[in-house]
Amino acid sequence: MPFLSTNCGCPYQKAFRALRLKHLVVHHVDMEVIESDNIIPVDWFMPIFKIQWYQMLRVEQGADKGPNQVSDEEFMKDCVRCGRVLNTDTQHSWRWTGFNFGFDIVIFYARGTFKLRRYLKTENEMRPGQNPYDSLSLRSEKRHLMYRFGVFSLNKDGKIISKNETSIKTVSLTENEQVTVLNFQTEMKFPLLISANFLLTTPLQSNDEIMPSIRHTSEGYV
Prior knowledge:
Elements: H1 13-17, H2 28-37, H3 46-60, H4 72-78, E1 80-86, E2 92-94, E3 105-110, E4 113-118, E5 143-154, E6 160-165, E7 169-173, E8 178-183, E9 192-199, H5 212-220
Antiparallel strand pairs: 1-9, 2-3, 3-4, 4-8, 5-6, 5-7, 5-9
């Protein structure tokens, strides 16, 4: 029996319910670890799987090209939160792994500038026999993305001594298009703590009459 279903674990259910569970299952290893740990009941994730499958179908079939005109409140409710530490002021590039509805986000840093690229493999990078249109990310020529990006420098006590942050922004990117997301406005001391929030799909609305069972579960699991 999962720990949270036991008498000992019951007092902790409220804390675990507050987690953004949908962001804990973006890789097949995540689900394997959750089952192996046997802490969170697997049936907690069933409504989330239903929502994610529905959203994936909407993206795949062109019904959802990403968030546009979404309120700040909705963004903060549904966005995925990512972090990273840059130890040196040298060139860096990385992606946060996990399923992202076909939007492969690659971040580049060089000389105080952070750039975001919607990465897609070129024909030369495809495996032999691979159809370039098999990829979910290629179903839509242009995709919308909302983000908020922040860079923080801390002292030895972990307190912020300088920072640069963006507001919540929306961009529309085509294949391999790149945009600058942040430039240092002041000199920053390394190492840097990177904080990024991304919203890749359009949030389900409370008044959406399509798939009411999906609407109900989306309001209960955020």
